[in-house]
Design a protein that fits this description.
The chain is an alpha+beta fold. It is built from three helices and five strands, in the order H-H-E-E-E-E-E-H.
């Protein structure tokens, strides 16, 4: 009997795709509200959008995250409003604090919006 050839394990794939990460963020009530306010205030000239800030995953505690920012987008500019990380493994969302650079869990970020 001949030996069974070794089979290399397939490369790890993300359980959450980039598109799913975008959908997950755009479903947040806060981002829906911001997008609506932008549309109304600009009379349809500007829109809320998510952009990928870096195509390379960001490592947080040994886990890869998509790097996305919500922006006010117009013909002449894109103004970042918030930066998000979405776990490729399970879709958990972290929000980057603009001042300190700290990563906040979604619920903690929501509390900070109310303060």
């Amino acid at each position: 009997m001949s030996p069974v050839p070794a089979v290399s394990a397939p490369a790890a794939t993300a359980a959450v795709s980039r598109e799913q990460a975008v959908q997950k963020l755009m479903a947040l009530p806060e981002l829906k509200h911001w997008a609506d306010v932008i549309e109304k205030r600009s009379e349809g000239e500007r829109h809320g959008a998510l952009i990928e800030t870096d195509p390379a995953p960001r490592d947080v505690n040994g886990r890869p995250y998509y790097q996305l920012s919500f922006v006010e987008n117009g013909d002449d500019m894109a103004q970042a409003m918030a930066s998000f990380l979405v776990s490729q493994a399970n879709g958990d969302i972290l929000v980057e604090d603009d001042v300190s650079g700290d990563l906040l869990p979604l619920d903690q970020w929501r509390k900070s919006l109310k303060d």
